[in-house]
Amino acid sequence: MTRRPVLSPARATAPIARRSRVTLLGAALTCGLTCASARPAAAQGDGSTFLRVRSTNASIATVLRQASEQSATFRRLVETINASDGTVYVEEGKCGQGVRACLVTVTMAGANRNLWVKVDTGAADVDLMGSIGHELQHAIEVLSDRTVTSGVAMYFFYLKKGSRSQTGAFETRAAVQAGEAVRTEVRKDRPRAQAR
């Protein structure tokens, strides 16, 4: 039986660390090349409208554009976010707790904040637009406090500023009102939009 020499921890992990650095470098280069050329679907077309509200999902991007065309409240929400230090990414996903949309977390990207919204795209367009409007209002609430830079900080922010819904999710009156206003405006605009 041959004995292997005992290596110091630094020498034993050196090959692993080297492979990890090479893998990480490769991943960074790949992401840099693909991410730099990929534009979020909501930013395609009229770039001035959706500077900071984005989606990589083409169907969600279409809903964002339609909601902005059909609802003054939705446009105001988008404009408020465009004037902030945050970018809101609206992507498909399940939230749980019986809700169709949710503000999931906040992350930092340099001096800017990224907020992540999940939406269940199975809802009818009007309901989906209202749900997204509701979550954009939550995003504005978070963006109004520059100390909210993480999911944990967002949790404590809503412990103070929000109330708990029956499902246990945090809620604010402003978000409920924003969602309902978007739904009402879109329903009123639907007959005009179909006549165009």
Topology:
Layout: H1 9-37, E1 53-54, H2 58-70, H3 72-82, E2 86-92, E3 101-109, E4 112-119, H4 125-143, H5 151-161, E5 163-164, E6 170-171, H6 173-195
Parallel strand pairs: 1-2, 2-4
Antiparallel strand pairs: 3-4, 5-6
What is the compact description of this entry?
By secondary structure, the protein is α/β, with parallel strands linked by helices.
Describe the structure.
It is a single chain. This protein is an alpha/beta fold and 196 residues long. The protein folds into two domains: 8-38; 41-195, no CATH class. It is built from six helices and six strands, in the order H-E-H-H-E-E-E-H-H-E-E-H. It has a four-stranded mixed sheet with strand order 1-2-4-3. The longest helix is centred in the first third of the chain and has 29 residues, at 9-37. The chain is globular. It starts with 8 loop residues before the first helix and ends with a helix. The model is unreliable at 15-47 (pLDDT under 50).
SS element count, helices: 6
Compute the gyration radius: what is it? 22 Å
Would you count the extended β strands for me? 6
Main pleated sheet: 4 strands, mixed
Order the strands across the largest sheet as they lie in space: 1-2-4-3
Number of folding domains? 2
Query: On the 0-100 scale, what is the average pLDDT?
Result: 80
| Helix-strand topology string | HEHHEEEHHEEH
Shape: globular
- Percent of residues in β-strands: 15-25%
Q: Indicate the structural class.
A: alpha/beta
Q: In whole angstroms, how far apart are the ends?
A: 85 Å
